[in-house]
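Risk register update: the risk of archive-format incompatibility is retired. Evidence:
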Amino acid sequence: MNFKLKGLALSISLAVATISASAQVNRCAVLEHEAYLEKQNPKRAQQRASFEQRAAAFTTKMAASKTTMPNVTIPVVVHVLYNSPTQNISDAQVLSQIEVLNKDFNRLNADTVNTPAAFQALGASAGVTFCLAQIDPLGNPTNGIERRSTSTGSFNTNDNIKFFSSGGLDAWDPSQYFNIWVGPLGGGLLGYAEFPTGALSNTYGVVIGYDCFGTIGTAAAPFDLGRTATHEVGHCFNLFHIWGDDGSACSGSDNVADTPNQGGENYFCPSYPNTDNCATTAPGVMHMNYMDYTDDACMNIFPAGQVARMLAVVNSAPYNQLTASTVCNPPVLVSVDAMLASIQNPDGNECNSTFTPEITLKNMGIDTLFSVDINYYVDNNTAQVYNWTGVLPSQASTGITLPLISTNAGAHTFSVFTSQPNSTGDLNTSNDTAVSSFTVVSAGVVLPYQEGFEASFPPAGMTLVNPDNLTTFEQTNAAAHSGTNSAYINNFDYDSNGEIDELILPGIDLNGTTAPELSFYLAYRLYTSPTANPNYSDTLEILISTDCGDTYNSVYKKFSTALVTTGAPFNTAVAFVPTSAQWRRDSIDLSAFTTYSNVTIKFHHITDYENNLFLDDINIDVPATTGISEGNTLSEVTLFPNPAKETIRLNLAGVTVTGIRMQLMDATGRLLQTQENLNGGMNYDFEVKNLAAGSYVVMIVSGGDVKALRFTKQ
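Archived output:
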């Protein structure tokens, strides 16, 4: 998290810079998340109060009867979301977290010896065992872990991580599985949980950052012992923060009698006895409690009062359905079971009305599959039948490409079901069907495309993406390159780091155009000097999709001094507003996309709490001076060999101009190499042996003349 104190004295800023990273993180955002849920559901506060009364009555009754509750088992599914390979945590890392939960909730953790003598007798076991599910919601075998690569750079407390439609993964049935989501979290957030209300929702569970989950892999000190998950699961079982979330007022309560009153959270590893304004004498506060904010190595106890509150949840409806779930038992397989595992295509957006469906068939039965009828249809049309034949052993999967199918522009559903496996009846029909929703996108906007942000915002056809529902792009009349308005994002006052905001242009038709170009005007100044250590900068990236937004490739990315359009002064109390001289025109050659009739372009912004960024006059067009005509200076340029294996030769022997620029791009338009100041009358060799096999484009630019040469790398 960036702790710049804008407008204050430098001495204060330097003092703040000495704060430890442990205090800078957002250890737990359960209160922020609860506020978010209450905003979505005005009755939630009443539901929470009612459940609190039920929990209190249960604990009172249990104490009076001196009843020992039976041990229970809770099935778990872990949903792993990753934006980079590093974030795709291993199965072993997941298992290490389950082991920590089982030790901490049963007081079997080795560091119980670190509990001070004054609190030792209070430590208790909840008798709760967590197990990774072995049966998924469709009745199929699973290891209790599902994964998804997501385009979302970071998640926050708005529960987007819990829904496939917003880049996350949907919950499994919360009455049968305890859901844990693990992924990249923004703003220094370690995790958050959802308190119980007496009704199971599809968001009930915990969210944990990938870098504080488990004890190995990506888990990083001082949050590398799995105690973030222990803390958040405690919230799911109705535990409050030990200080009662009243700051240092000593008036709040965690509703637990055997936790001393405490004046606010503790960080790092305080020495014992740790006293404060609420507990002024030894033994002081219970800073080693799992529901405090100390480092993982300093947490080691749930006292009996907290255990009683947790048991009130897991032993009462509807949460006791979890303890009755049998999904931790191995599945019972039948002899013949053809499963329609997934639909790869169509899914999401389709750029063309004619497409090739792709599915995955899995053999969930004991017997080998030799044939299966694949029935498929769009919307409510008559099903077509494709007879698959092959050899598919038990638990094996195979991808199947179905014949072409056509439909019209708009929203549709694609349905597939299996029948007659091995020319007999399927003994488990619960997994035979899959359905996907998709949209056939109409052809893109014909050039030229121009947007100056003078009318409504976001402009017609443009999409604004604001995952955190906080600061984002907006229209302003404070500055403009032309006209009176521009688009800007208030990084100066943005209250978080690493958050993503996007402007997505309408689809653009570039098919058959010659040397199209994207240009725009930008104004940006850093708040922190580029020579400061550490250095901060907001980031602007431009991404292009040729499949209507399903996948993107980066064609432009700038930050720090590459992004700025004006330099000092830095560390000012006033946010940046550009003058007319502080704008810069940036451009991107789109020649690699001239075979596509629907190109999606988005401006992708990542905040670092630095300074305001302005955009204006976005233009996509074919420059008037660009093109190849009779007598063009580049008309004689050739390239060989084609296909190429190790080297390509650019033949400029028939060219008389100098100062020629060469750009090498892949088929998606991603820039791989640039060579400046090439001279006519010569040949130039370029090594391509390290390129992957496929199609590439060499752009030759001289003044206003452009020539594109395509070649294939073998």
